[in-house]
């Protein structure tokens, strides 16, 4: 979870400026997905044109349209990207796991969605060894 390392390095004000809306959030994701430049997952071609979705790229050889969200932690969630990154930020930067009720109110999503996404973040952190609290059972 490379993004969690980036988010740990910035304060709340910088975070709000950089990821405050969907447009600015979508601008940041291609840098994470293709840090060494675009490469089609189907044919390994490096030339592209603008895709259908925000910040997606369409291979100029095979025509495959690849979204920046595919393969990301927020893939297949019915959650705005800026809210997903916000929940990710709050989960990563909190000393204890972020309270799900607070997350649902802050990002205007239902509690189940906040809980499911923060669980996904926590699981990703655990398997990538970025777990801030040590062992899983120590959440308290």
Description:
The chain is mainly alpha-helical and 140 residues long. It is 46% helix and 6% strand. Strand 1 and strand 2 form a beta hairpin. The chain is elongated, with a radius of gyration of 16 Å. Helix 5 (100-106) crosses helix 6.
Task: Explain the layout of strands and helices.
Elements: H1 2-8, H2 12-19, H3 22-33, E1 48-50, E2 57-59, E3 65-66, H4 81-93, H5 100-106, H6 111-127
Antiparallel strand pairs: 1-2, 2-3
Helix pairs in contact: 3-4, 4-6, 5-6
Summarize the structure.
The chain is mainly alpha-helical.
Q: What is the SS-derived class?
A: mainly alpha
Tell me, rounded to a whole number, the average pLDDT: 80
- What is the strand tally? 3
Q: Kindly report the oligomeric state of this protein.
A: single chain
Kindly estimate the percentage of residues that lie in beta strands according to DSSP: 5-15%
Largest sheet: 3 strands, antiparallel
Query: What is the CA-CA span between the terminal residues?
Result: 24 Å
State the shape. elongated
Low-pLDDT stretches: 132-140
Number of helices: 6
Key attributes of the depicted protein:
single chain; about 140 residues; mainly alpha; three-stranded antiparallel beta sheet; 6 helices; about 5% strand; elongated
């Amino acid at each position: 979870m490379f993004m969690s390392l980036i988010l740990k390095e910035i304060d709340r004000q910088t975070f709000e400026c950089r990821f405050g809306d969907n447009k600015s959030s979508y601008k940041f994701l291609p840098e994470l997905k293709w840090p060494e430049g675009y490469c089609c997952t189907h044919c390994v071609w490096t030339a592209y044109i603008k895709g259908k979705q925000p910040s997606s790229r369409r291979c100029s050889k095979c025509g495959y349209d690849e979204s920046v969200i595919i393969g990301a932690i927020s893939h297949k969630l019915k959650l705005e990207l800026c809210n997903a990154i916000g929940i990710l930020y709050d989960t990563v930067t909190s000393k204890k796991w972020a309270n799900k009720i607070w997350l649902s109110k802050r990002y205007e999503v239902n509690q189940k969605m906040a809980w499911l996404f923060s669980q996904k973040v926590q699981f990703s952190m655990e398997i990538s060894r970025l777990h801030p609290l040590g062992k899983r059972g120590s959440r308290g």
